[in-house]
Design brief:
globular; 12 helices; 2 domains; about 425 residues; TIM Barrel; 8-stranded parallel beta sheet; alpha/beta; Urease, subunit C, domain 1; 8-stranded mixed beta sheet
Length: about 425
């Protein structure tokens, strides 16, 4: 074996003391004992689990690299225990065409510390068949949001009927009608204007518009009722840490402005109950950084979005440590299911899978502080909250990060449909 990792590991059957043997970047053996190894690492008192698979990040490259780029965004991902991300298409230019896709892949391949895939903007005129050869997902914005790429109900139906679609369709489903021209001065105003009712109607339309064989994945769902509806209709859904842990009563001001909005505390608690009971499919960070200067504008003018890729897993591990979340539910939403949805060889500790692993000590909590994080934007909405950060992150058996800092080389690769590195 190239490497053997020993410790208590989260396997498909639960937690067990074992050895994980790794050869050529993949898990070759899982057993009580493994004899020979070129290198052996032991994690006494820690838990070894699959690294995170985040299907929803905005690394802002090309065109907005003052906020983030693939080097800083992927550094944050690795240090937070995530080994794979999918970047969203609302860059400058938007990722619409095969040429746009190839340009983003080229830029990211030179910079990324984690493996990555790309989503492409889906419209009725998209050459979906060709783009499906490279994109791991398509993206639709149903309703106006940051980036001015939204479509209406008619546009949704046209886009979903594109016969060339061969990849999952990720949908930002927030509202169907034109938003009222009412000024916003607070998070509560933002919540009222982009209401729960509007989000529910948009989600229901998406589910009513599903075509046979079309994989639909609803992003950043804020309501337990939508999760239940998605489960009944055979689609999949994502939740985010910010909608689970923050609400419109917080004092974050513009730092908490995001689309869909932070909801009321009661809605947040219902969402947490649904998520913790296993109702959600995935958890994504919706890492969407803006600079402090942009966020310090008047509430109405400030852009929507917040960083979160580095804190996603630590925040949820803290809930595991507090006894409020089952570690199996966490791993399913942050690793196993997202990998299954886009068809990549990650997300489980099993023979044949990529050796993307993290080691965590659930007794080791620390306060989240922006000055210890790695996003270029330089702030976090979770300042002062507790998190359990991974001690080590491995990608394909290579150590990438240790104790919150990069410790290895740039190993990130672009993953094409089919799960293979291209």
């Amino acid at each position: 074996m190239d490497l053997v990792i020993e410790g208590r590991a989260l396997l498909e059957g639960g937690l067990a003391e074992c050895c994980i043997g790794i050869e050529d970047g993949r898990i070759a053996k899982v057993a009580k004992t493994i004899g020979r190894a070129d290198r052996r690492v032991v994690f006494p008192g820690s838990t070894v689990m699959p690294a995170g698979v985040d299907l929803h990040v905005h690394f802002r490259e090309p065109g907005m690299t003052g906020k983030e780029d693939f080097a800083t965004g992927s550094t944050a991902a690795a240090c937070g225990g995530t080994s794979f991300v999918i970047d969203m298409p609302n860059t400058k230019p938007p990722t619409r065409t095969l040429s746009d896709l190839k340009e983003k892949i080229s830029l990211a391949s030179k910079k990324s510390y984690v493996d990555f895939g790309i989503s492409a903007l889906l419209g009725s005129k998209t050459d979906a068949k060709k783009i499906s050869e490279l994109a791991l997902a398509f993206k639709i914005y149903l309703g106006e949001t940051t980036g001015d790429l939204g479509i209406d109900a008619g546009g949704l139906l046209n886009a979903l009927s594109n016969p060339g679609i061969k990849r999952p369709v990720f949908i930002h489903a927030e509202h169907l009608d034109v938003l009222p021209e009412t000024p916003e001065k607070s998070l509560a105003d933002h919540d009222r204007r982009r209401s729960e009712e509007s989000e529910f109607q948009a989600a229901a339309l998406v589910l009513d518009s599903m075509l046979k064989g079309r994989a639909i994945h609803l992003l950043h769902v804020t309501q337990a009722e939508i999760l239940r509806l998605v489960a009944k209709r055979g689609a999949t859904a994502e939740v985010t840490p910010h909608h689970l842990l923050l609400d419109s009563s917080s004092r974050l001001g513009t730092l908490g402005k995001i689309n869909p909005p932070l909801r009321s505390k009661s809605s947040r608690m219902r969402l947490w109950e649904a998520f913790s009971s296993g109702l959600a499919d995935t958890m994504g960070s919706d890492h969407s950084p803006h600079t402090v200067d942009e966020k310090e504008q008047e509430f109405d003018a400030a852009p929507s979005g917040m960083p979160g890729v580095e804190t996603l897993i630590p925040l949820m591990l803290q809930k595991v440590a507090e006894g409020k979340l089952d570690i199996a539910v966490l791993s399913r939403c942050c690793s196993t299911r997202p990998a299954e949805i886009v068809g990549i060889n990650k997300g489980r500790i099993a023979v044949g899978m990529d050796a993307d692993l993290i080691a965590v000590d659930l007794r080791s909590s620390s306060k989240i502080s922006a000055d210890r994080l790695h996003s270029k934007c330089g702030w976090t909405p979770y300042e002062g909250m507790l998190g359990v950060f991974p001690a080590v992150t491995f990608i394909r058996g290579e150590e990438v990060a240790r104790d919150g800092e990069l410790s290895g080389g740039r190993v990130g690769k672009f993953l094409a449909p089919g799960g293979g590195a291209a």
